[in-house]
Amino acid sequence: MIRLGTRVSFVLKLIASVLLLAFVVYLIDFARVWATLNDLPWWYFVFAALFQTVLLLVVSLRWWIVSPGSSFARLTRVTFGSQHLMFLFPSSVTLDAVRLWSVRSDPSGIAGNIGAILSDKIAGLAAMLICFGISGLIADLPSDLNLLLQQPALFSLAGGIIMVAVLMFDAGQQAYKCMSRSHLGRAIASKIPSRIIDLSSKALLAGSGISRTRMLVNVCAAILYQLLVICGYWLMALVFDFQMSISQMLFISSFMQIVMLFPVSVAGIGLKDVSLVYALGLFGVESSVAFSASISGYPISVAFAIFGWMLSSKNINQRDNTLGL
Fold first, then answer.
1. Residues 175, 168 contacting (CB under 8 angstroms)
2. What is the DSSP letter of 84?
3. H helices of 139-193, where?
4. pTM for the complete prediction?
5. Over residues 31-48, mean pLDDT
6. Residue 322, Cβ density class (10 Å: 0-12 exposed, 13-18 middle, ≥19 buried)
7. Which residues contact residue 162 at a Cβ distance below 8 angstroms, ignoring those fewer than 6 apart?
8. 3-state class of 203 per DSSP?
């Protein structure tokens, strides 16, 4: 039954990817796309691959920070060796399951590793929400979009800060008290009892054995990840000649990451393209050029997926040889 559900989910996401790609293809000029891709310099793909490598290393670093006693090399192999799963089973939950399976024999146990993964996800989500909130407040956006995003940006920024506060335990209590002093804060605080903040923080810290120092370092690493993603968009803007400010790149980066949280397509194919064409179009980028920028990253994704499949197959063969199978 589970296998059938997985297959049905994959087929539905594949259909969604095809429909989204068909929609964006309707908006573009193939001749313009082909000309843009042909003009790409060779070094663009080299730097894009380097950026992807660094991003995955930061992902492994964050996982290692919240997993005391684990081997960084081992966690890095798991991170790189699971990239093909984004095409087979397009869900972040799948990658989390691989993480748990790979560290099932660690001294901290399954419960501790669940706490570590949960803490890591909260830190990453907090950093992303903070970046989106800041970009929504300071980016030079079209006037109608700027008005529309003011309140969501404020809530996003507040939500990210609260998440960081909850992770830091003591700061969670202080944030709750400070938040209760304002009218808006009291309205939000009334929905989040301090006991829940206290218990959640203790569970995250005690359940996974993570110190507050490690938690803070992980949050900083999550912010570093966001900065690296922005650098990736800066490289894209440089190559495809986008005229955008840093604050606008911050908005596009955080917007794209939020959109990609929705598991409605295979490896984000289609959803990423439609979203990037829309986001860049807000700043006057032609849809054909935006689509070219979007699909230019697919060769890198496929290459990392193939490498991940080869790495995971090698690890399985080594384990079987060790067991004498």
1. no
2. T
3. 143-167, 170-179, 183-189
4. 0.79
5. 89
6. exposed
7. 172, 175, 179, 192
8. helix
